[in-house]
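Thread title: Can someone regenerate the structure for this chain?

I was given the following input by a collaborator and told the matching structure tokens would be attached. They weren't. Posting the sequence so someone can regenerate them.
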Amino acid sequence: MRKQGEVFLEKRIQIDYAYMDKVATNPKLEATAPGRILRCKPKSVKPPNGHTLWLGDLSIDTTEQDIIDLFEPCGKIEMICLKVNQLRNGHFGHVKFFDTEAVDKAADLAGTILKGVPIRMDFAEDKPLEAYRSGKDAKPPVTMRPPDCQTVWIGGLPDDATEDSIRRLFDRCGEIKEVRLDASKRSGARFCHVEFVTCEGVDRAVRLSGETLAGSKIRVDYAENRRHDPVRKPGPMDFPPGMGMMGPPPPGFPMPPPGML
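Best answer:
Regenerated them for you:
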């Protein structure tokens, strides 16, 4: 490390610890180690009205939920994208906030030890969400967005999915009015409907298609709003638009009773 910044073959060299050397073996002592926080803090200037942070040196065990828990006091998160590094021994990625002020608060957490490794941060340019989803097998909604849509259909849920786990994943999209969990009577596959208070929550939710929940890759699509009719008796779950009488249901969705197709 003493050679940091020296010139070799007419180029200034840059040295950093290898991943395994970054693991904090004594977190309490290393939390105040000289230079650790300085090395982890952003090196670039925040873009005007920027909403995005680059994250590096993340443990291979770090999950998106860990990132949500870390930054929850800073502000509402719009997007998280984690990828495995080339050595496949750690993660890096981006986190995008709805408010630019949240980025400043989050940057102050640079150097925080997460899963045994000090997290490194830098400011990043804002990009369309689709640019971050590349490589994550995200699929766009297969149905058209119904007018005033406030509900999404979610398939591919793990067997142990609960209302709380679904709320934790989609809470960043907006205020949730109701979560309705169900399972296919034929295959037992889990699915649910999430109803938001606003239409904006739906638009954010469909962008999470391709995310993982407890190891299962989920699919998110638009759905018809539930008819809140006190006279109407409970009946079969509504299909997403265009998938009832017009074609087969999506994977994991229950088949309608015989004679309804």
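Residues 229-239, 241-247 have pLDDT under 50 and may be disordered.
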